[in-house]
Each structure stands twice: as C-alpha cells, then as structure tokens.
Amino acid sequence: MTTVARPERPLGDLLREWRRTRGMSQLDLSIEAGVSARHLSFVETGRSRPSPDLILRLAEQLDIPLAERNTMLLAAGYAPAYPSHQLADPELAPLRAAVRQILDGHGPYPAVLVDRQWHLVEANPAVALFTAGVDPRLLVPPVNVLRLTLHPGGLAPRIVNLSQWRGHLLGRLRQQVLATDDAALSALLQELRGYPGGDDVAAPEDDTLSRVVIPLRYRHGDRDLSFVSTTTLFGTPLDVTVSGLAVEAFFPADPVTTATLHALGSSATGVT
C-alpha cells in the first residue's frame, strides 16, 4: 500500500483553493455541507481544526478526488481515509479478474485499461490494430494513451478525422484537469496542444454518425474503419488507485469495420 507524506500546505489553503476552483463561495459551501459560514471561515484561516468527518464532508461537496481528500486529511494531522493499493496487490485480485474479463470479452474489438493520467495498464490483443506501425519509442512503458494517439509518430497519421478526434480528446483532458487540478495532466494537455492536427475544439462533420457521437475514423491498409467508443468507470470506488481507472472500449460503427475486426481476430487465433 502506498504511503503519503504530510503536505507542506495547510488545510485551509487547500480547502480555499478547491472551493474557488469549483466556483463556490464560503456561504454556498457551508450550506451544502451543513456547517456555519463562520466555522468554515475559521477552518480556511487556520483558526479552527475541523474533525476528519467535516473534512470529508466538505471534500464530498466539492467533489474532490480521493487522493486529494487524503492530502487534506494529512494536512490537518489525520491519517488518510482511502487506501492506495498497487494493482498487483492481493486486495485488488477481484478487480483484476473483472478487468481481464471485460477486456477479453470485448474481443475482437479493441479495449484498454488506463489510469487517471492516461497511462496504459492493460489491453486486449485487438489493440494491435492501433499500435502497428507506430514509433517504437511511444510504446516504451509507461505508455501514455493520449500521447500515443495524437503524436505525429503515433496513430495520428492514420486517423482520418484527426481534427475532430483531437478536439474530442483535448476537451476530455481539459475537463479532467479542471476536475482534478492534477499538475501532470495539465502538463500533458500543454504537450498535446503542441502537436499538429487541428483546433482544440472538436470540429463537426456532416454525416449521420457524427450528428450522434464523435466517431474515430481510422485507416487500416486500404480501408477506412469507423469506431464509437465507451468509457467504463468502477462504481463507488474507495481506493485511490481504483478511482482513477477506466476501461476505454471501441465498437465497430459500420459493417466493414465489423467484418475487418472479426477477420483480424480469426487470423490472430488461427481460426478459419
């Protein structure tokens, strides 16, 4: 289990920063958390030391990520409330089994498991469709899935609707930075913005599918494949590691893509 050092910044500073990030006044937060505005003011200025329950209640109202809730507790001199296991730890064996079942069961369609900073944790064999031909340096662990996708040496040259897909991914990452205040994600966003491929905003395309969802259109050989994607999070996580995990799964959006993926899957397994 990961241990966390006590932060240098006091609880009041952390709480004030998160409150302002969420666009809430002291009065707004006090009402939502069921505490007096006077007491909340004392907490932010360091004149009052709140209980662990109050810290967690305030963090819940501010929708603060679990890791940062632990940081707030440590800043106030309390023990972390949420464990942070490694995926290889025995405690997470049921989760690993569930993820493996999801990834394997999704074949022959691509699916990956990523952490909250978009590092590749696991993938099913169908992901080879995307990684074939990319710069090997982008596949050296830890592999960042967003960098792999938008880097000129990655998937980008084969993404037919690169401007649209790039805008979609940057929009998701931008929202994640706002929600988590994660410095590593902020740095990643700035890096990805420097890659060529279009504007930061997803450009609309005039076709039936694009009016419903933003598809990924990917060139494979002489065929343009079309995918829709889904994101699966783990419900009610109480572990820091688990709270940041997501399964990104791709489904074929047309008969050509379906037939191609099944043919590739059969070829990989030796089935005729």
Provide the structure class. alpha+beta
Number of structural units classed as domains: 2
| Level-2 CATH architecture of the largest domain | 2-Layer Sandwich
Q: Trace the largest sheet across and list its strands.
A: 2-1-5-4-3
Largest sheet: 5 strands, antiparallel
- Which range best describes the helical content: under 10%, 10-25%, 25-40%, 40-55%, 55-70% or over 70%? 40-55%
- Gross morphology is elongated
How much β-strand is present in the residues? Answer: 5-15%
Q: Radius of gyration, Cα only, in angstroms?
A: 22 Å
Number of strands: 5
For the record, what CATH class of the largest domain applies?
Answer: Alpha Beta
Element string (H = helix, E = strand)? HHHHHHEEHHHHEEHEH
- Poorly predicted tracts of residues: none
Write the layout of secondary structure elements.
Layout: H1 11-21, H2 26-33, H3 37-45, H4 52-61, H5 66-75, H6 93-106, E1 111-114, E2 120-123, H7 128-131, H8 145-150, H9 162-180, H10 183-193, E3 216-220, E4 223-233, H11 240-243, E5 246-252, H12 255-269
Antiparallel strand pairs: 1-2, 1-5, 3-4, 4-5
Domain HTH cro/C1-type: 15-69
Protein name: Helix-turn-helix domain-containing protein
Pfam family, one: MLTR_LBD
3D structure, described in words:
- There is one protein chain.
- The protein has 272 residues and is of the alpha+beta class.
- It folds into 2 domains: 11-75, 434 Repressor (Amino-terminal Domain), CATH 1.10.260.40; 90-269, Beta-Lactamase.
- It contains 12 helices and 5 strands.
- It has helices at 11-21, 26-33, 37-45, 52-61, 66-75, 93-106, 128-131, 145-150, 162-180, 183-193, 240-243, 255-269; strands spanning 111-114, 120-123, 216-220, 223-233, 246-252.
- It has a 5-stranded antiparallel beta sheet.
- A hairpin with a 5-residue loop joins β1 (111-114) and β2.
- α2 (26-33) crosses α4 and α9 (162-180) runs antiparallel to α10.
- The radius of gyration is 22 Å and the shape is elongated.
- The protein starts with 10 loop residues before the first helix and ends with a helix.
- It holds the Pfam family HTH_31.
- InterPro entries: Cro/C1-type_HTH (IPR001387), Lambda_DNA-bd_dom_sf (IPR010982), MLTR_LBD (IPR041413).
- It comes from Micromonospora parva.
- This is Helix-turn-helix domain-containing protein.
- Residues 15-69 form the HTH cro/C1-type domain.
